[in-house]
Amino acid sequence: MPTKHRRLTSPTADDVRAWHRVHSAALAHDRPGDPLPTLAAVRTSLTTVGRDSRLALWLVHGSNDEGVATARLRLSDSAGRDHLATVELTVHPAHRRMGTGSRLLGTVVAAAAEEGRRRLSTEVLAGTPGESFLATRDFVPALRLTWQKLSLADIPERIVKLPDVPHPGFRLTAWEGAPPDALAESFAAARVGMADMPTGNLAVGATRWDAERVRMIAELVARRGERLLNQAAICEADGTVAGYTKLTLPAPAETEDGTGAGARANQLDTAVVPAHRGHGLGLWLKSAMLRHLTDAHPEVTEVVTSTADDNRHMLAVNAALGFRPLRRTVAYQLTLP
């Protein structure tokens, strides 16, 4: 079927609706039961990016001018990561196996190469045709991920009560958005604790963390209309952050299209500074976050998270909290000339 590729510079309302149509159809087909994106969430994904990144967008139209495929290329411009790019490529289920995805991927690969990128990565559902689609185009599997879901109604009672268990030498503190000024530098230093997180063979580059960057990340979450919740364990001996966990609440659902994802929160990274590991702080922090959710955000009914298959410790922590397997994905990577 004839198609027309169009690179978007300033997405219009019609572009957003077409993008929403493609992604909603693909999500309903590939991950039935998952909440569909709102128009607002789609609009935000096309227009909101961090200060050290850029987006390149393509929308493919069919013969009757309806949207049939999309591509979102994210180009990092930060030092240590300016050789990397990631792409999210989506084809409407009714238009697959017609060459649309192949042509669109070729356009994206060429654009990434023109930007001087050396690695292009993407993520697909494990065990689906998406894997062979990438493998036959020189992408190689670099990291396998397990996605887990927790229904807040199923949190084990013993876990909910864990925040009341003393952890000598540490105390919990919480905030929303950017960290308090007194903790900003310490929190940034703790982010380095994620440096040894298993990443398989996926090229992730080096990120320089400081107070300005953690504030920028919080600002980006706010610009997306989401809420960023943080729990941290503070070392009482010196007042520094010994570990932390982060979670985002989705933007309020729109009513214009009758869909929304307000009931699902996303668990982000959890890290403990190497010097403070072995005290059970990770489990303590995550259970404190779940208790806060049940008390302060009754509209949230479930939490979803992803963890590298090699990260056995965090998978075990999640299982102890009541998380159950949801799906598996594979990050593929292409080496560009």
From TrEMBL:
It holds the Pfam family Acetyltransf_1. One of its GO terms (molecular function) is acyltransferase activity, transferring groups other than amino-acyl groups. Gene3D superfamilies: 3.40.630.30. It comes from the Bacteria. Transmembrane segments: none annotated. SUPFAM superfamilies: Acyl-CoA N-acyltransferases (Nat) (SSF55729). Residues 6-190, 192-337 form the N-acetyltransferase domain. This is Protein N-acetyltransferase, RimJ/RimL family. It comes from Actinacidiphila yanglinensis. The lineage of its organism: Bacteria, Bacillati, Actinomycetota, Actinomycetes, Kitasatosporales.
